[in-house]
Amino acid sequence: MDDPVILRVENIVKTIGGQRILDDVSFSVKKGHLKVLIGPSGAGKSTLLACINFLSPPDSGTISLDGKAVDGKSRKELLALRQQVGMIFQDFNLFDHLSALDNVRVALVKVKGLDKRAATNRAMEELARVGLADKSTLYPAQLSGGQKQRVSVARALAMDPKVLLLDEPTSALDPELIGEVLTVIRDLADLGMTMVMATHQISFSASLADEFLFMERGRIVERGAPSQLLARDSGSRTQSFCAKLSELAGDGHCEIAPAPRA
Amino acid sequence: MEGFYSAAQASWEAMPYILGGLWWTAGLILGAMLVGFVLGVPLAVLHVYGHPLTRKAVAGYVWLFRGVPILVQLYLFYFGIMAYLSEIPALSFLPLSSGFLSAVIVLGLTSAAYQSQIFRGAMASLPAGQLKAARALGMSDAVAIRSIILPQALRLAIPAWSNEYSILLKDSALAFTIGVLEVMARTRSVAATTHQPLPLSILAGALFFFLTWAGIKTLKRLEAKVRIPGYAHQGSL
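Predict the joint structure of the above. Result:
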């Protein structure tokens, strides 16, 4: 029960173009836990994730990794932080000019300084883990959306991140391709990867998440265990948001999916 | 009639001499393209990713070389700067009085201005996610630009770059004004003795046309060779 806190986010404020996108956001993630960010578009979920690895530096507040606050002004600390925090993007952002193998390998060589052989071995291991060992020579334009996202997961995992940030990893995918990416994410959760994920896949994430954080207008307005927030009589914002999504999609969005695999 | 015949013969006999100018023309273009590339790439990077002041400086450079005609630059450089420098004894080991050197520098600096804009456009056209993903992996901006941005941007730039090649090729003919014995200079000097400018000008035109064709063909081949598999955007120009 007392897993150590890996990532601590405190009082993050971010203003873009005079508009307050994040308004005093705080939460922390323990080792092996999965926090899921839910909420309407424009709530600040993506910006919050981008603040954590300073792709979009927060105006104020503190990000601490492994108990050590990161100094956003130190280039060295920034680069070190980003090495340890993996990120998965909604639109994959694979490097278009590199094969799947090189996408996974490039940072191992250029950032971690591995020699080519060690980097290749590691990259192939990660591609195998996401079921794409046989696609290693293909280029992003030759892969399906689901395959691209799995390569991007392999690329992030190869760096041995302490935390993985996932920014709506399935939102850009055709419905029939979502499953293969969710399976990979589920495997990661089972393996104890520490993750923060923004998603609209509420019923899927409810079965894996340790906590839901419901965001609205730059604030976390509700937090709690999925089962508690999604209970029909909870009267929570999460529940009504989910009911709305589910009405639009016409499926059982707010049901908590059966426990992952037997 | 006999006069025409002997002039035509003189023109014909001058062929090897004029063809010899191809080496100088080719040297001018290759030298200037190279100078333009070596300076143009960092200028483009500074223009896109640099400090606001650096961006202004690059923009100023581009304006300057876009705004001043090459002929004026050649005169300023050859009769001005180079003539001045050649009077400094410490620099006497440099071939400062060479028109070829002046021409390569002037054409190269001008081409750097144009090439920087070609590369800048190519970099700006890449999706922002490429740099974001590179940074998210812990790459410094220098590494990200070298390993992720430039390899893609340079590929995208090849069609516009071959356009720059053909423009530079034709600008290189201006080097005759400062005594470089390239194709145009030789054509003019032969025409001055034979008084038959027409056949010689046609020959000169054909030679420039040939160089343009050969260069663009080569660049097309390069474009196909470095094409990213499955990437439809490429090779469509």
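The domain at 2-225 of chain B is CATH 1.10.3720.10 (MetI-like fold).
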